[in-house]
Amino acid sequence: MTEHTTIPASGGLLSDRELHDIDAYWRAANYLTIGQIYLLDNPLLREPLRLKHVKPRLLGHWGTSPGLSFIYAHLNRVIRLRDANVIYICGPGHGGPAMVANTYLEGTYSELNPDIAMDEQGMRKLFRQFSFPGGIPSHAAPDVPGSIHEGGELGYSLSHAYGAAFDNPDLVVACVVGDGEAETGPLAAAWHSNKFLNPARDGAVLPILHLNGYKIANPTILARIPEEELRALFTGYGYEPLFVEGHEPAFMHERMASVLDDAFDRIQTIQHAARNGLAPTAPRPKWPMIVLRSPKGWTGPKEVDGLKTEGFWRSHQVPLSGLAENPAHLALLEEWLKSYRPEELFDAAGAPVAAIRATAPQATRRMSANPHANGGLLRRSVDLPGLHDHAVSLERPGAVKAESTRVMGSFLRDVMRLNEAAKNFRIVGPDETASNRLQDVFEVTERGWMEKILPEDVHLGRDGRVLEILSEHTCQGWLEGYLLTGRHGLFSCYEAFIHIVDSMFNQHAKWLDACREIPWRRPISSLNYLLSSHVWHQEHNGFSHQDPGFIDVALNKKADIVRVYLPPDANTLLCVTDHVLQTWNRINVIVAGKPPSWQWLSMDKAIVHCRAGIGIWDWASTDDGAEPDVVMACAGDVPTLETLAAVQILRQEVPDLRIRVVNVVDLMTLQPKEFHPHGLSDREFDALFTTDKPVIFAYHGYPWTIHRLTYRRTNHDNIHVRGYNEEGTTTTPFDMTVMNGLDRYHIVESVLQWVPRLGRVRIGLKQKMDSKLLEHRAYIRSHGQDMPEILDWKWGQGPDAAPKRPV
Amino acid sequence: MTEHTTIPASGGLLSDRELHDIDAYWRAANYLTIGQIYLLDNPLLREPLRLKHVKPRLLGHWGTSPGLSFIYAHLNRVIRLRDANVIYICGPGHGGPAMVANTYLEGTYSELNPDIAMDEQGMRKLFRQFSFPGGIPSHAAPDVPGSIHEGGELGYSLSHAYGAAFDNPDLVVACVVGDGEAETGPLAAAWHSNKFLNPARDGAVLPILHLNGYKIANPTILARIPEEELRALFTGYGYEPLFVEGHEPAFMHERMASVLDDAFDRIQTIQHAARNGLAPTAPRPKWPMIVLRSPKGWTGPKEVDGLKTEGFWRSHQVPLSGLAENPAHLALLEEWLKSYRPEELFDAAGAPVAAIRATAPQATRRMSANPHANGGLLRRSVDLPGLHDHAVSLERPGAVKAESTRVMGSFLRDVMRLNEAAKNFRIVGPDETASNRLQDVFEVTERGWMEKILPEDVHLGRDGRVLEILSEHTCQGWLEGYLLTGRHGLFSCYEAFIHIVDSMFNQHAKWLDACREIPWRRPISSLNYLLSSHVWHQEHNGFSHQDPGFIDVALNKKADIVRVYLPPDANTLLCVTDHVLQTWNRINVIVAGKPPSWQWLSMDKAIVHCRAGIGIWDWASTDDGAEPDVVMACAGDVPTLETLAAVQILRQEVPDLRIRVVNVVDLMTLQPKEFHPHGLSDREFDALFTTDKPVIFAYHGYPWTIHRLTYRRTNHDNIHVRGYNEEGTTTTPFDMTVMNGLDRYHIVESVLQWVPRLGRVRIGLKQKMDSKLLEHRAYIRSHGQDMPEILDWKWGQGPDAAPKRPV
Question: What is the ipTM for the molecules in this complex?
């Protein structure tokens, strides 16, 4: 391990005292890191280290930790000297013990966890709890103060960092990117986020690529490519790379201090120029980034059992193990711990000595206590426009058509406008804002863009609050970072391609779930998805664009976190949008279509319907409040249309059939109450779906999803679901429903199949439906488009409401 | 639109004749592309264009198409002149009509689809079928000859290209990367694939970044950054970028021909040096790549309705629309089509003129007929070692422990060895091969690596057949490309993080599904996943590493494509591995653990069990073949262990309880036969699970997955599932099961709850189980690890088989 001799006089930027203190801080952080990984007891080594002091299971990651603490120590220096406002994003989140160690040295950890005090007893608890049952996880999980990024799954640190920096002009987000993480796709794409960061309006991101050379059992790519390629790569990404390379502590302290000063100077220069009109139309600035090349497991054992350990992947997790079987390893551990000279670092009570405490900043300047990293502290509600101002007005169901997401776009335009001063609302998406028909927002803002702007460009500007990059990963990461720092937003995406971020969704859901247990974590705004251009509207792009399965990924996460909404028309979509923008600590998935579609509910009715999340549509039903012959349920805009068209056929053809139409907006209402807070009680469910009548359920996604939600319900055996069966290609919109058996004719056939008393009419109507289907097929094959729609909705007009002519 | 005057004499590399012919080919391809998007009839414009000749719905993407055809034409030239072996990967797969056009000009399309002949009638059909109901999709779907990449979801072209090039030393994979696609994470990561390509052993990838400047409604990042950054970026990625920029056809032909010659020369030089010992230990070569900057919608209408169209995003899809309402647009379309001078391109019969045909290569040198792009043509079975040679030998169930994946690793080592000469088997993974305990493969091969190798490096070499990069996307793309070109492989990954490739999985499943309908597509090897370090073994990394939901993503895809295996021990894992490596056109998901675990089945029994996929374990059951009191079902290694431990407790405590143990290896057996080819008939299912007895089902993943699979079964109402409920943190392995109620004690309690006749023993045993749980909790909180295991399996030893001492 590294010889921690007294640091020599530097003769450089740092005074001897500064050098000594910063090194002591770093040694203390390393000591506390190793302590967490190894020690159950004897935290200050005040007695000889024995096996009983060591944890029986050694868990955790040493390799990245000394580098993380080195960076932390030097950021502290810069913060102190400049009164800078900095948060720290730890890409290699498995360096959790290092992050905990630093927050403990800053005092924040003890403030938030009073039983882990800054004394020997507290240190014992600090060590013991780490990766211990009932204790804390090994990653930079939500219980680590100052963390907005757990880093368990790699790849998202840099997009989180940019998300945090947007609209936070005073903030510098220091983002440590591991060289393993740097190999991931999401991270590789996120470097280009600098094309969207406006130095006049946004804060700064300072990426620190930590090249410690190794992953679990392999070298990393970026650590092994030639230096000139590394430099070219980051120049190509648009940064000014600054290098800190070495392993000798005194030299490295000196160098890091100087490079960090340089980086912060450059940031200040860029921001000053942009904010003082010195470079208003200049091209995007070249922001600095730092490449820190230091040994993996730096200051750890150089060799273990004759094998290279420091500066190699053997340091990745626990460099010394098998202590029970190998007394030499126990001795080596003690020697290693003592190499940091704990007696110089902690006082008699076990608290860090004053000189070490003094190297950290104070109060909320501490990165572990910066309110931006506990965004709920800063979160203010978003101002919302009046729902009725945007409502589609309709005299009766089916009276008009509207483009649902277009209407939502006008609402979002006003959200943008109302919160323009607060600068706390953004829309992100992969170049699909207009394609998803939200283009009205461009009346009040633009797409953010820091590259060249040509005269012919449309809605492109430096101050745009819509962020579009063809990377769903980057969109998701930006929005997460933006929300985690206390702001609001929406991610608009094609339904099929939101699967690209399945795993990021999972991680964010787990983050939110873990936060519920941490009292000092304040609620953050929900992550809201609008999934449009959905499976039923991908008839033009074809099979590869058809996938409604994200809902199923979402349903696997904790009920408290996830909501799925399937508004059937524009007014219900508005209600849902208005609602989700007011919620916190959730992930809301809204699926809604964009083409002109029939509208069903007035705004007043939509509000009532959405509040319940599910309900009987009396105006479409023919059961007059009595027990129906059949329940026709629907969830999703296209299934609702096809169900209502089927109902219209049945009203015409089987006038005495008692039909009950149930529409589901909030999918979670279907689950039992004990499984989801929105779930109906069994009594409520039975009141809607009966206990014994056939239920023909037309659903937006995969049919089994409805079964998965309702298998405990009394009437489950009678629920027959139609949905997407992976039958699709490039065809017409109506043919998409036919291919999957979700169309009106198949729905009528389902009713014929399952309603027992229809014996007489069954054969004739079945033939009629079959011939309709043949007619459809012949028409689209010859015309290449759907037959003109001859539906004539007459709902809600008294006894004559049934349609007058055949459909 | 571009003035297609007679091409002037070039005075450069191309003779006048060559220039003329290549331009004619290109014009023909463009004409055919526009024809597909627009025309129902009058394909050669032999009468004035009228509205009735035009499709009613205009679908497709013009913007990228002329660039794709330009590249195609020039690759054809290089192939002809050098007799090169080239396939074409079309990243912007939505340029489908261009790809179809080129394959039609090469004659391949008509050979494979005889009713689309090379005459006027065939051309009419070619046009009509595109994006038309019953016709072909708008992307480069499987029905496009020469395509191994549909490109519907963007981001995977380059990893597919490298996958195709591995172990194909004579192949050059030309890979067109769209500048939109280049913004995605997976694509950004895939550039680094060059660090794994060995010029001596592998083929070459020639990336062609097509900068046409725009996505759907935005400029692209790479098209707008300064030229020096663009150059630095690709230098940094390790390439030698060659630029082709402009829009004037004659100039561009000349330039492209010359740059392509340069690129192919460079490839030859690199390969020659590597293969002739001229550069055996040299660093990775700088492979060439091409940046082609040409206008979006090149040669299309310059302006439409006064708005810039050529060279702008308005060209992205259909530049001229609303033809019915706007006669000027119809006239413009005719003018545009005629600008290519079709009368010079097609003869009286409607076939491409001889000069155009002659610019394309012949037979299998045509990129559309290259067998590598229909990999099943080249696929040879993989040689497999004997199962019994690798079997764990055990006298009776529970006699020994083994590390399942370690045993699998020894099998894979021999697969590597047996197929070393054939060079057709690879393992990919994100730096987890050893972590997942497959390290025995390193006895016969290494990790492939073309960067510097240090003396201390372990199992790292130029010829390694294990590919590790910390990018699940790149791993998946490589393997897909490798399989699609006729080879075999395995992707080993942590279970939780395979969600990262959910969307790629979906796309590959859709590709395979579509291939089933295309007779000339030969079967390719299945894509095999080993998911290890699974949810129940992530007690050390914690919550972020726990997610068994990939199975659910897989289940949503077509039954013919997907298989999910949950082998309970090493021998069953071997059987499953042996099986999946012999299958084709499937995606096989295997979930198996790595720590030392009890073994249950001898190899002979394992073979029988795996062949059935599900079965009663007589040796653990106590129903003696009669109707049981309870069925205890299990799927997955940890659930099987906990179920058997629960059975042991019950045998001890309730000796007369008739228990039937059912183990499920092949999850698909649970589905009804009509839903999945592996599904049990209802009779078979009822014979195993009874029609009315309680079933306590311990399952590896989310409990509702079992309900989703079995909701149609007779006895479904009595199936009670325990599984993962998103309750996890950093704790002990056994505590993971306790937190989720999957442990033996909770399983016993389930039996007590649901078996009616247990009245008397219920209370006492329930208390015993509760106190066991309390004991467990107290123990791990104080010791930090699980209690020593005191199980003593005595299965299968006659009447005394029940355990002798309490557990």
Answer: 0.96
